[in-house]
Structures are given as structure tokens and as C-alpha cells.
Protein 1
Amino acid sequence: MGDETSEQQALTERGSNRSQRPTSNAFREFIADGWAEGGMPAPVRGPAVAHTAVRRGRLSRLFPGERLVVPAGPLVTRSNDTDYRFRPHSAFAHLTGLGTDQEPDAVLVLHPVADGHDAVLYFRPLAGRDTEEFFADSRYGEFWVGARPSLADLQVVTGITTAPLDELADALAKDVGDGGVPLRVVPGADPAVAALVDRLRSGPTRGTDAEAHARADAELAEALSELRLVKDSFEVEQLRQAVDATVAGFAKIVTNLPRAAAHPRGERVIEATFDGHAREEGNAVGYETIAAAGDHATTLHWIRNDGRVEPGTLVLVDAGVEVDTLYTADVTRTLPVDGRFTDVQRRVYTAVLDAADAAFEVARPGARFRDVHAAAMDVIASRLEEWGLLPCSAEESLAPEGQFHRRWMVHGTSHHLGLDVHDCAQARREMYLDAVLEPGMVFTIEPGLYFKADDLAVPQEYRGMGVRIEDDVLVTADGNENLSAALPRRPEDVEAWMAGLLG
Ligand code: GLY
Ligand code: MN
Ligand code: MN
């Protein structure tokens, strides 16, 4: 046991043992004084203000008379007392237009009024320099993490009425009683806000109908997801920027391939090249970069990225830049490390490319989302049949009770793309897999073939190779646009592009 003093000091206070904070009144007065006025840049109206108002209006019409609570989420601890860089919940970003690291603990509330809802954005505004927070709070203080906006600033930026976070609890409680205003909160966004909402909507006479509340919240999550299925013009523009930045990042990877091939952890060279680019050109990567050489490419989410990048093998790179508004690209290219595909690599690559092309053919208004996958699978199954790998015909394999071809492509062909790399994930099946495609939808087309090094069902020459080609697709009025078309896909184009970059 320690001495009496350390036993009495709460564990949560022990972090202060590494330094001593000045506490005298004289110091407090001194640090609060002598700062120039108006040092902060003037706030600028955000580019998405008109669009977010339309999105909130659509949500409002789905839940008349109800109070809707959409938290940004809290800071998340990485270890001990250090946090991850903050990223707001995507539903919050979608409805406020806020991106990058804005704003930890903020909560958007749609308060019901006679003709819809009034939106109010509750957040922790900048604390004065005469507060302890200013210099002593390492999580929120201006001296530690920088100045936050004022209430007036964020109102200009978002076009939404703002209020201090400490008014949230009373605002949520208003008229919430028996038969009063129903509350819904986005599940999983902020446990403290969810607990507050749960306390308010449970009561001695109302009881705690946890299941009904969970259902109500799930319906809100579902609606928020479905609201994002068709992108507006601002979102499409953001996705274009994300894809363009991603295309530039792939070119940097190729330029760095010789260094990767010479490094004992060449996959990390690729990852670091792309991730550095993403931080320079956007907010970050939209998901952990997959840099998978040789057999590692058969692990679908290989993000350890600590392997060698051997000449003669393929390296699969799945990476996306997330721009400051938090829209992300999701692109995969499978590259021959030394710039030329071998015959067997080209054969597998071409099968995957043909599957992707078949999927592009059907991805147009009027088709169903599931048809895109089906078109890709037709090609994959028939190639596997040609190569003698299926235990049956391609036709039998494609039947629901067959599906043997999926041994070599266990993932789906497409997913919606937007603020989340797997966007709209809470949408109902009839709105997603079974939905009819509409202009403005953006999703990936990403067939692949993965032959593990120990897969005895395929000849030796195929083993230890994974190929995926992933593009980002916008459904247009009369077909589709491949947003990532600037990145070569055909094997001969990939080789020519690499040759040009490698000199
Ligand atoms: N990068 C994850 C995916 O392609 O779905
Ligand atoms: Mn994807
Ligand atoms: Mn991907």
C-alpha cells in the first residue's frame, strides 16, 4: 500500500502528478488579462447551408410532433488521457454540414413546432480567458486544443440557431411528460445523451419501455440512413473531390513502389504514402488503408500492412481520401509490383475486370441494386467454370442453393458510398438491396477473386493472389458515371500508366 496521501488522492486525479498547475489568484488574473480583441477569423457561411436545411426538412416531415436528437458524439479515448482526433457522427454531419473535428459533444435537436420543427444546435462554445478551462483543461481548453467557435460563429457557419450545451437537458425535457412530446435519439452516437433521453422518456407512471424506445430510435436511424441514399448536388461534388484526391494518391503510391519493394515492410510504405497524401489533401483516410501484397491480398480487410512487396507479385491497394466535409472515396486497384502482369495474373485480373464491366452495364435507373451484383457474379462463375475450378456448372453455382463461386469472392459487389464508406447501412432491405436505382445514388462496384496460398481447390499457379478492382459510381439519368475513371483499370492501361510514372 502507498502512503496516506496517495491513498486519499482519487485515481482520476493522478494525472496531475506529472506537473503542477499554478493556482494563485494572482496567476489567474494575470493569464486572463492582456489579450487582443478580435483575434479570431470572421465566421463564413458554410457551403452546404441550403442543402442541410432541405435535408432537415425532409426528416421533419417524417416525424411530426416528435423531438429528434442527433448527437455529434463525444471525444473517444485512444489511451489513458489522449483522445482520437474527433470525427462527428455522420448523421450529425449530414444535417449540420459540419465536418473535420466539429464539434465534440454537440447535439442537434429538432424541436416540434406547429408547422414542422425548429432546429437548435447545442454545443460547448468557446470559454472565456478568465475561466479555468482556458488554460487548465487539456481536453477542451483553448490553450490545449485551440479555440472553439462562439455561439454566433457557429450560427453563421451552419445557418442553425445555436445554444449552449448546458441548456440541452432542460430543452430536451420540455413538455416531455405523460402524453407529452415523444423523444427519439440516434442510437450509438453518444451514450451520455442517449442515457439522458432515456431518463426523460421513462418515469414513475410511464415505466421504462426499453424495447419500444429502442424501436423508436432504430426508426430514426433508419430514416437518417435512407435520407442519404440519393445524394444532392453538393454531396456529389464532395464525392468527386474525394475521388479526385484519391486518384492522385494512387499515382503517388506507384511513384513510391520501388521504395516499397526495397523496404522490409513495403506495405507500410504504400500505406504511409497514401495516408500522408490524405492528410495533406483532405481530412484523413475514409477507412484504414488496405495495402496487401501477394497472399495478404486474400485477407479482405488486411490493414496490418507489415508485409514485403515482392517484385513479380500483385499488390492490392484499397484506399480512399475523406475530404473535410467527411465524404469519402473507396477505390481499389491491384497493381503488378514491377509494372507488368504475368499471364496468370492477367487472366485473373481480366476476369475481375469483365465482372466489373458487366456490373457497370446494368447499373442504371430502373435496375435493382441486387442486379449489379448478379451481373458481376455471372462473369465470375463462368470464368471459374472455364478454369475448371467449380464443382458444378456455372449455372448450378449461380443458383441460390449453389453459390460455390463465392468461395473465391465472399464479399458483396457494391455498397452505397458517402459520409460513411459503407453508407446508408441502416436502410431497410427494400430501400437498399431490393431498391430500384435512381439518379444521384453513389455506390461502389468492386468484384474480386481471392486465391489463398493454401487453397488446394485451385492449381498452384493461382495460389497466393488476390485481385479486386473497385470504382465509385454515380447513377445518372440515363446510365452511370464512373467517378474514378481517371484511374486506369484495363491491364494494358495500368501498365502504361505505371511505366509513365516510374520512368
Ligand atoms: N474498403 C472497404 C470496402 O471496399 O468496402
Ligand atoms: Mn468498398
Ligand atoms: Mn474498398
Protein 2
Amino acid sequence: MSATTLSQVVTRFAPSPTGHLHIGGARTAIFCWLMARHYDGRFVLRIEDTDTERSKQEYTDSILASMRWLGLEADGEPVYQTKRFDLYNEYIDRLLADGHAYWCQCSLEEVEAMREKARAAGEKPRYDGRCRHLGLGPGPGRAVRLAAPLSGKVLFEDMVKGHVAFDVNELDDMVLRRADGAPTYNFAVVVDDITMNISHVIRGDDHVNNTPRQILIYQALGAKLPVFGHVPMILGPDRQKLSKRHGAKAVIEYEKDGLLPEALINYLVRLGWSHGDQEIFSREDMIAHFDGTSLNSSPAAFDPEKLLWVNAQHLRAASPEDLLPRLLPFIDRAGLPAGDQALVARCIPLYQPRASTLAELAEQMRPLLLKAADISYDPAATAKALTPEGKAHVAALRGRLETLEPFDKEALHHCIHGYVEENGLKFKAVGPALRVALLGTAGGPDLADVMAVVGRRDALDRLDRAMGM
Ligand code: GLU
């Protein structure tokens, strides 16, 4: 497959709004979106809300919000299946008129009895086609069924699975429209995919058994088949069905945890697709390389640790200007002052290499964002470093810092190291005391960086507070 042979790629993501967007669905959406973007095609979003009992507006809103957050923008407004019943009926009428569909008066109990009978005879449970030749017309309680071919095979080339074949006699005359007038899932999907000009149907392989049924509907309608791609499910690290206990969450929860959408996309795209050994992809990289090939046919396992690692890589690569607005809500949520945005901006590069999420980044900045009076001093670190000797060094340095010009990183660095050398000391006689005095903890970024970021007044306040302890 190459851009020159695929003239108009149209993909769709078709979630049922019966829950939030989870990582399996998100990965399908990413594949569909990338395929469209790679080939300069269109990506459409279809809300499959015909199951009115389980579909909820709240979930539609949540799925749309997750898609927006992930940056998987669709071309055009979302399409809702519940608004397309007239269209489905038109297609039903066409099939009835052409003899590809027929009215069926069998009750659910009768159909169940047929299935039971088939099961008892060791056969596949199926509808026996008894209304097919009755020439029935419309009437209360009547469904419409497809007059499916009685023999032969349904074949297709799957983007992921390769050659797939189903025997037609494994399929029965499926219902297209129920007695209550609602289209069945398979019928609505086919009418939608045809009328939306979908060229590539990429979805989870839990749908692969629907595909031969859908192909029969395409054939009855004389429509061209799209290319199908069924991607294997994502498994847990124990190779079992993925669930919460594996640490898998809904996309909105990852947003709350402080993951970057570009990192979540990067992590998910690699679950089932590869481009050599490359692990870290920008959005542009993915679009450039994702051409619908190199999709893995064996299921990938979800690894929360790796997700955090990928996130850390993206966090490191992002520019502080880009991170600032995304970080502010997390600073706020951590109960830290977010008002001094210039201070937050100066802190970002200090902690960027150490954090794996935005929430962690906000938390790590705590000692820098608080004023001297609000910092909490770790008792063990304080007892160890702020000894009388340690405090004496802090006091001596304080004197130098008061008049240091300019009060910038380089000058601060020279100041600290100059003090250490002139007094024939080792850095560790001074560094830990200064660190605890400035931050309240034994760890943290470079001391000259810290002081340059908080500024002279704040740095001196911190030292004063520590010396008074
Ligand atoms: N609505 C289906 C689902 O959420 C997807 C159907 C399709 O992609 O064909 O699983």
C-alpha cells in the first residue's frame, strides 16, 4: 500500500456510547485516525447509539472529550445512528424490492425453538428460513431478514489477519430490521459504512465474526467492499483479558493522572504496530510512518510501567512554554500557588527530567513554589544536614549571596564553589546543609538553579528560616 495507490481513504471510529473511552477503543481510534491522516483522507466519527437502553449521552460526551484531548480530530460533525433510521428504512425497502430480503413473522420463541432443535441435533443454532418463501408483506410483529446465499464462501483479505474465509452455511438469514422497527447492529453499520464512503474498516477483532455477515449485506446491496482490518485485543501483562486490575484505565483517567495525550497515543500505537525499533514517536512521525502495514496479528500486552516511561520521554522533550498551561491545573490541584506563572515556568526545566507525569512534576515543584514560611522541612534530613557546622556554612554563604551580582545561575555556581574551595572544604560539607535550608529535603535539583529560579529575596528568606531552626 502506498499513497499513490490509495486515492481516497476514509476511515471511521464507531464507538457505542455505553461507557467511557478505554484504551482498546482509543487504540482503534488512533489507527483509524492515522490511516486517514497518512493518506490525506478523511476520518469520521460515528456514535453507534441504537442500543437505547445502554447508550447514554454522558458517555457520548465523555468519548468526544477524550477524542478531543487525544487530538484525534474528526472531519465533520459526529454522526448519530439514532438520527438515521429513515436511511436504514430506505435500504430495507431496496432489499425487499430486489428480493434480497423478506418479511418474517416468527416470534422470538419460535426462533429460539429452532435454535434449540439445531443444537439438539448437534448443528449450529440457526434460523431455518421458514418465512423465506411465504411472500409475506409488512405487518405487526414482523421483522425483515436477509435472504442470504445458501452456499459458498465469504472471503476477504484482512489488513491484519491476511486471508479470512467463512462458510456461508455457518450463517443464517440474519435479521436486518427488528419487529419494533430498529435496524440491527450489522445492518446499520453496513448502511453507514456504504453511505459514508468508508474505504477502510479498522476495528477490534471481537468484530471479526460480524464481518462475513456484513459482507453478505454489502453483496445484497451491490456495494463495493471496504478493506477490513481487525486488530487483536490488548491483553494484560499476564496475557489475560485486559481489565482494571492490570492498571488499565479510561482515557479521561489518564488525563487526570497527568499523562500527555501525545504520550498516550505514542504508547498505544505501539501496541500492535511497529516501525523498526522506534519507540518514541511525535504525532508527525506517526502520521508519516503509519501506512496500514506492519500491524501485528498477535495480541499486545499492556504495560503500565512502559506507559509511564513513554510519558516521561515526551515530558522531557516538550518545551517549557508548551508544558506551562498544561501544568497549571495540576499545580492548582496539588494545592500549590499557581499565580506566579513566571516562577512556575522557571521551575519546569529543573524538574522536567525527573518527573514521569504532570501530576508528579507539580508535586516535585512544591518546595520551590511555596514561600519560605510554608516549606515543610523533612525532620531526618534537617537533623542530619543542619548541624551547627552546617548552619555556620549557610550563614557564611548567606553573607556572600546578599551582595552577589548578578544573581544568576553561573554567578551562584561560582559563589558556592568559591566558598567551598577558599575554605579548603569538600562540597559535601556545605551542599547538603544548603540544600535542606533551601528546599527542606535531601534531594532535588542543582542548588545554583534553585536559587536563580526563586530569586535572591526568597533564597535569603529560606536560609534565614533554616538558620533559625
Ligand atoms: N460500535 C462498535 C463497538 O463499539 C464498533 C463497530 C465497528 O467498528 O464496526 O464495538
